[in-house]
Design a protein that fits this description.
The structure is a homodimer. Chain A is an alpha+beta fold. The first copy, chain A, is built from 8 helices and 14 strands. Chain A has 2 domains: 104 residues, PurM-like, N-terminal domain (60s Ribosomal Protein L30, Chain: A, 2-Layer Sandwich), CATH 3.30.1330; 155 residues, PurM-like C-terminal domain (Phosphoribosyl-aminoimidazole Synthetase, Chain A, domain 2), CATH 3.90.650.10. In chain A, strands 7, 8, 9, 10, 11, 12, 13 and 14 form an 8-stranded mixed β-sheet that branches. In chain A, a hairpin with a 5-residue loop joins strand 13 and strand 14. In chain A, helix 1 packs parallel to helix 2 and helix 1 runs parallel beside helix 5. The C terminus of chain A is likely disordered. At the A-B interface, strand 2, strand 3, helix 1, strand 4 and strand 5 of A face strand 2, strand 3, helix 1, strand 4 and strand 5 of B.
Chain lengths: 296, 296
């Protein structure tokens, strides 16, 4: 898409027949990451991951990113370089050009990432078309990020490998694209805030309710159901599809689980219910990922 | 351009025959503004102004903006609301939709503004096509922002009106558009860092040198030539045009001054020279706007 980096602005050409996708995500030191816990590379990776995951949730393809970066003067050049290397490493994997940005001074590291993407005109997958009777699906395993965060916050020793693995997830772009191409999802969102919160977003935008089957939720090894429901930052895709469509158990190598069903809009507030399939259901209040600073 | 706000992403349609312009600008409290000096409204205005001015410098039309905003929990809701009101007030003047963004916690107010714009395909005005013999022009009056800043930093009393006037400048979109439509500029940039710095950018990108005529620089009332040359944040347009093109002294109601001439690239480092027209010239080192925190 990029024609080349301009000067006051970047100049980009959008393919005819494509809509433009735009998402922005701001990451702040001690709110979204801690320098004591996370390597500069993993922070750069994570910042871009958030934007790429949003593009995946629309069924789109990322094309370019822009980075506005605030850094303190006391920060080492190595930290900044490693941050950029982490970001560019992930960008390169998905053919995304770093097309511009801004830099400034800031006491805390502050990175705002803008990701542009494309999707065939009129085909972006929104959150608003889930219908009663649709099945609810999720990719991958949930709760891993919450599990890691809990251990880090408890001061437990966690191998560098575990931190890297959980913090350096890959966006589900291939799955999102596969689903959108085949017209499978009626609604889709990425799991950044937590299943209970993100599913509530779909319910609200689609004006429906949802029933989750607790035994069907794919819980990451070591994590609890609670972490899988409310943990957030799993960057998996949550989507709904008509019951008559057969959704395979693996898409582009990623496991896909059927975890519940969309119901008609409720009279009362509780939009998301949980329980055993066919058993008694209880309301699942949206309660998701909280910033580090709140938990401390 | 906007089809509507999406959910994980905004979905926008770019007109066929147009290129997309993208610019990002990050504003940080105590670096780019001080809450003691600047009203929340004026800060919101100024943040967006920076992006709109970049679009003007490409000869483009702004279409949508995105705001990533970090706010501390101790900040009043009124401050945040006034900030948004200032931003939206300016956006409304130029028909720019606030199409999305992100919010987070942050100790210092941190606002990253992304502005999207459009320009007929292949017609964006870059910094790189100034040619020897071209005349150099600037819109408006220079040095006003530096004058105000100096008084504020010296603790002098400055009327609220002066602060508002200097901090709430309007982007030169109509002038940029007028110039681009008529194919006037060979190169263009907006004056954010200061004339000496921004002209050096044009010289570097175009691989030329420049001669400025000190008596021709339009200095704002109260300001000094020094402030006009190095002050920055004037958000006027600096452009070059072939000598054979007649550039009117006012465009869209804004005065335009002819302030110098482009010369062949020098053998030595100094790209920008200054002196009386036809008289002896001295090098003008690029020395522009510095963040508040450096000056303190």
């Amino acid at each position: 898409m990029a024609l080349g980096i301009g000067d006051d602005c970047a100049v980009l050409r959008v393919e005819p027949g494509s809509d433009l996708l735009v998402t922005t995500d701001m990451c702040v030191e001690d709110i979204h990451f801690k320098r004591a816990w996370h390597t500069a590379r993993s922070v750069g990776h994570r910042c871009l991951l958030r934007g790429l995951s949003d593009i995946a949730a629309m069924g789109g393809t990322p094309t370019a990113c822009f980075l506005s970066l605030g850094l303190s003067e006391t920060l080492s050049a190595k930290w900044a370089n490693d941050f950029i290397a982490g970001l560019l490493g992930l960008a390169g994997k998905f053919n995304v050009a770093l097309a511009g940005g801004d830099t400034t001074k800031s006491e805390k590291v502050t990175a705002d990432i803008v990701v542009l993407g494309k999707v065939p005109s009129g085909r972006a997958v929104s959150r608003s078309r889930a219908r009663p009777g649709d099945k609810i699906y999720v990719t991958g395993m949930l709760g891993g990020s919450a599990w890691l965060l809990k251990r880090l916050m408890a001061g437990e020793s966690v191998s560098r490998l575990s931190v890297q693995r959980q913090f350096c997830l890959l966006p589900r772009l291939a799955v999102g694209d596969w689903l959108r191409e085949r017209g499978v999802p009626t609604a889709m969102i990425d799991l950044s805030d937590g299943l209970s919160v993100d599913l509530a977003h779909i319910c609200k935008e689609s004006n429906v309710a949802a029933e989750l089957w607790s035994g069907a939720i794919p819980v990451e090894r070591g994590a609890t159901l609670e972490m899988a429901l409310h943990g957030g930052e799993d960057y998996e895709l949550l989507f709904t599809a008509p019951a008559k469509i057969r959704v395979p158990p693996r898409i582009e190598g990623v496991p896909v689980s059927s975890i519940g069903e969309i119901r008609p809009a409720p009279n009362k507030a509780a939009r998301v219910l949980i329980g055993e399939q066919g058993g008694k259901l209880r309301p699942l209040p949206p309660r998701g990922w909280e910033h580090f600073s709140k938990r401390n």
